[in-house]
Structures are given as structure tokens and as C-alpha cells.
Specification:
- It is built from five helices and no strands.
- By secondary structure, it is mostly helical.
- It has one domain.
């Protein structure tokens, strides 16, 4: 009960108006707003008739899409960095070999 009271006290005038207009709770208005941020095709009118578990499903799927997107982006960035490091290592190794060769020639002479 305290969560309901807390949500009611923290609600802006717009949220309270929407809740009254659609005869839904302030918490549901907030949940709809959050869900609409994930699913841009969802209208408030349709969402007002949906069950909260449907919002949770949409939000969960949205989070999974974001996770997959960033996983692919991170994987791609890792592969690119790995190639760059290999190339840099190869260049430095070649330079070190040349320096060692020069030192060996200098020591022999």
C-alpha cells in the first residue's frame, strides 16, 4: 500500500490526468510510458487496455534486443582491436629483429 501512496504523491499532474481519463492506476500510467519508450508502435490507448505482464514482456524483449545489439557491437570492436594489436605487435617485432641484427653486426666487427 505504501508503494501506491508513494507513486501517487510522486505523480505529476499529467500522469494523474491520464490515470483519471483512462481509469487506470498511476503506476500503470508510468509502466505504459516506460513500455512505450521501448515499443514506439504502441499507443497509449491500446496500452491502457493491456495487462501489466504484457508490458513486462515487451520491456524484457526490448532489453534483449539492446543486449544483442551491444554484444555484436562489442564483439566487432574486440575483433578490430585484436587485428590492430596484432599488426602493431608484428611491426614492433620486426623493428626489434632489425635492431638485434644491427647490434649483432656491430658486436662481430
Amino acid at each position: 500500500m505504501t508503494d501506491i501512496l508513494k507513486a501517487s504523491l510522486e505523480a505529476s499532474g499529467d500522469i494523474k490526468e491520464l490515470a483519471a481519463e483512462y481509469e487506470i492506476s498511476i503506476g500503470k500510467v508510468k509502466m505504459i510510458t516506460h513500455t512505450m519508450a521501448v515499443d514506439s508502435d504502441l499507443s497509449f490507448e491500446v496500452a491502457a487496455m493491456m495487462h501489466v505482464r504484457d508490458f513486462n514482456k515487451i520491456i524484457k524483449e526490448g532489453r534483449q534486443e539492446v543486449r544483442e545489439f551491444y554484444s555484436e557491437e562489442i564483439r566487432s570492436l574486440y575483433q578490430k582491436s585484436k587485428k590492430e594489436l596484432k599488426l602493431e605487435f608484428k611491426k614492433k617485432t620486426m623493428m626489434m629483429k632489425k635492431k638485434i641484427k644491427i647490434i649483432c653486426i656491430f658486436i662481430k666487427s
